[in-house]
Amino acid sequence: QVQLVESGGGLVQAGGSLRLSCAASTRTYVMGWFRQAPGKRRELVASITSGGSTYYADSVKGRFTISRDNTIYLQMNSLKPEDTAVYYCAAALRALGTLKSQALNYDYWGQGTQVTVSS
Q1: By the 8 A CB rule, do 30 and 101 touch?
Q2: Which of 88, 87, 72 minimizes the C-alpha distance to 27?
Q3: Which of 43, 73, 79, 104 has its C-alpha lying 20 to 30 A from 91's C-alpha?
């Protein structure tokens, strides 16, 4: 059983920054940050493997940075109102390859943290 504990969400003005953290009880192969806005499907924002390979959704490239040590982080800069969502940390115990964007392939999830960007 892997426990994921998130922190760092909040309210910020457009153009501002936030950093999300996710503490995992054990190291996993793939860690990802998903987000879900009201009425929308859950989408992968960024992921990182145990080897350090990263992936970013086109909508956040150049603005968000994912990193990991014993915790994974999502540094979010130049935030936009459309980034408003509940952000979830997720962990997968195996390599996902091209399946990494599908939420159902992740084994464990955090409780979610709200990020609200005001215009």
Answers
A1: no
A2: 72
A3: 79
72: left (phi over 0), alpha (psi -120 to 50) or beta: beta
What one-character DSSP code corresponds to residue 60? Answer: T
Residue with tokens 């603005």: 63
CB neighbour burial string for 85-100, b if at least 16 within 10 angstroms, e if fewer: bbbbbbbbeeebeeeb
Q: Is the dihedral of CA 77, 2, 104, 113 positive or negative?
A: negative
Q: What is the pLDDT of residues 27-59, one digit of tens each?
A: 888 999 999 999 999 999 999 999 999 999 999
Q: Which of 94, 104, 81 is nearest to 34 (CA)?
A: 104
Q: Which residues pair with 46 in a beta bridge?
A: 33, 56
| pLDDT, tens digit, 9 for 90 and up, residues 67-76 | 998 799 999 9
